[in-house]
Amino acid sequence: MKSLIIKMLSLVLVTLSGVLAVAAEVPAKASSAKPAAETVKKTADPAAEQVKEGLAFWKSGQFDKAFAAFRRAADLGNAEGQLWTAVCYLNGRGVKADILRAVQLLRLASASSSDAQYLLGRIYLDGRGVTPDADEAIKFFRRAAAGDNINAIYMLGLAYRDGVGTPRNEENALHYLNKALDRGSMYAAAALAECYLTGRCVPKNGEKALKYARMAFDAGIPQGKCALASCYLAGFGCEAGQGGSQAEKLYREAMKANCPAGYFGLSRMQAEGRLGKADPSQVFANTKQAADLGHVEAAALTGQYFLTGYGTPVNRMLGEKYLLRSASFGSAEAQYLLGRAFMQGTAGYPRDPKRAFDAFLRASDLGHAGGHYFLAVCYLNGIGIRQDLEKAAHFAELAAQHGNAAAQIMCGTLYLRGAGVDANPKVAFDWIKLAAEQKNTAAMTMLGDFYLNGIGVQADPAKGIELIRNAADAGDAGAQYTLALIYADGIRVPQDLRLGLQYLQKSVDAGNARAMSLMALYYRDGAGGQKLDHKKMMQCLRDAEALNSAEAMRYLGICYYRGQGVDADPAQAFKYFKKAADAGDADGYFWMGLCYQKGVGTQVNNRQAFASYVRAADRGSVEGALALGLCCKDGIGTQVNLVRALSNFKKAASGGSAEALYYLGVCACNGLGGPVDYPAAFRYFSESAKKGNSYGQYSLGCCYEQGNGVGKDLKLAAAWYQEAASRKNAYAVYALGRCYEEGWGVPRDEVRAKMEYQRAAKLGLLFAKDKLKAMEDLQALVDKRAEGGDGE
């Protein structure tokens, strides 16, 4: 009896993930003209006799008589009669469909019938006539599986695989799917094929995926056709170049059997352009049909299509209905899409970082690679949750291991910077290489930079530039921008301003905001092979600002601050610096702090200046770290803290600041934040001087003049004073004057000395004026004495 019931149940089964669907077989009508009841042998049990009679009527297609017989058995308290009466109510066979009455009968039968328990699980899972309740569904599936119900065992496997109504557990998922397969479920074979094809619960294995798909296909179920089609699309089991056409044929055959996976598979092929140019209306129609047949992932996409108007008029109410239905039954894709909508404030949803984080967390718990990745993004940037770089790295690696190229790039970046993980250029290179092998042009550009500079791999400039050029020629605006810098600056290639400008223009035309900002600088300075044109400079910056470029906002602020291309306007300058800072631009915070400190476009407020410098430094601004160090050194907007000052000077110096190196030298020379250390001061001043900082050059001259940290050498002292003086450093000009006055390292020359003192005075050095007056007074005294001597 049990095997007969399993065969004859007419409910449509849809898997939790929506990839597979099962249609139970219904026997054809009997051809005998005699009433089916006449063939039924009498038994001692009246209720059992009614069930047998009902089954005979059912087989012959006499559903009204079947219902009457089942109903009589049910009224006698027979569980099989209750089950079959419920089936009639569910499908409207022999009686008007009544889901609530069916549920009542199934609950009565569930006391002893695993089939009734299974059907109740299906009803609560699909929300067919009742409020969807995945937890309740799983309870019934567990009871039915304990009674060795093959369908319930199969559904439990899917539940553990997808985390629906129970925590996701790959080990349990495989246990139940294999158990169902061992008992002859070909739907389990199709599900296992999907697992091996996608790497869910098991390592990816194309051969095993094909093996299970063919098992399901040979069994004649539509899901077997869909599983085999998926294998063909992945390049398994078909001749080269034939996968698409063969997959399309199989999906269409599955569609004839009303299999949701067939509709969904075909819609994906259409959306991806595998069947020619995508027709949004066809994609939408097939996706919605799959969703209406119970395909959970299709429901998620249907919701998204309604919200965005893809292939259908925008309908927020229907969009939310489909999306939330999919999400409520464990659709990882739906949770992921909800997270994206809340993160960006799109598709009719308000921007809500906390709800975005929660949705990504649920998608991640369900094993969704995109969920892992955006969870990493949230932890990395503190979106909806406190920033946690270690967790960001953890979830980025989870997504990267699933082949998510964006996550692989994030992993590479984190390992390169040592953020949340120990810095490891080799591991960084390996992750970026994996993403580049997927033809991700951003990764190709980064990999090119690694080869160009020997990061994590032996330097190979030719290979590096080739990778970047390939990405640029593929239309990647970022690669075009990078290539523009390479040719404009002559990085590992002969300098070619014309070619650099061509690539920069391509990047601008492709809408790259950074390229627009750089082009603006070229127009501002007449550099990079471009003519000076402040009008075009402003247009480039406005275009980049329209793309929400924080960098462009900062540059616009600088233009108003300095009066470049526009009239100087302190209020506008401050406004743009604040916009840049609010958009997360580190240097925007620095410039805003500078405005607060100097009272440009706002009231002087040293505490606000200090707070802005802190935010700038925390976000990696070199200028911000330097300014913060000076605040801590001099007590501007905060208490004097020489240790913190020294720490920020070091941070700025590591970022390439020559001025920070100078201040490190000053600290070492004067024992600020640590003991006096002349050798260290000499090293810092040397590094600063080589980078062209005039104060570093002047201080290096002082070291050579006084023998601090190095042997005394007046010639080198004079040479460094000369270098700094050429950059109009007033102190160096004055020191050079002393050298000529005293003959230190240069021939003694009082006329030249006086000239240098005059230069220093014009540069605003007050004691240079005093020196000149003293020289004039001394000369007057000499002249007077000389005149008096002649008189004698």
The count of β-strands is 2
Main beta sheet: strand number and arrangement?
A: 2 strands, antiparallel
Number of separate helices: 42
Mean pLDDT comes to 88
Strand content is under 5%
Low-confidence region ranges: 1-43
What is the rounded distance between the termini? 149 Å
Q: What is the gyration radius calculated from CA atoms?
A: 39 Å
The global form is elongated
Structural class: mainly alpha
Helix percent band: 55-70%
Strand order of the largest sheet: 1-2
Structural account:
The chain is mainly α. It has a two-stranded antiparallel ribbon with strand order 1-2. The longest helix has 26 residues, at 766-791. It starts with a helix and ends with a helix.
Which helices and strands occur, and which strands form pairs?
Layout (H helix, E strand, L loop, with lengths): L1 H7 L3 E3 L6 E3 L22 H14 L3 H13 L3 H13 L7 H11 L4 H13 L7 H13 L3 H13 L7 H13 L3 H13 L7 H13 L3 H12 L9 H14 L3 H12 L8 H13 L3 H13 L7 H13 L3 H13 L8 H13 L3 H13 L7 H13 L3 H13 L7 H13 L3 H13 L7 H13 L3 H13 L7 H13 L3 H13 L8 H13 L3 H13 L7 H13 L3 H13 L7 H13 L3 H13 L7 H13 L3 H13 L7 H13 L3 H13 L7 H12 L4 H13 L7 H13 L3 H26 L1
Q: What structural keywords apply?
A:
mainly alpha; 792 residues; 69% helix
What is this structure, in a nutshell?
With 792 residues, this protein is mainly α. The protein is 69% helix and 1% strand. The protein is built from 42 helices and two strands.
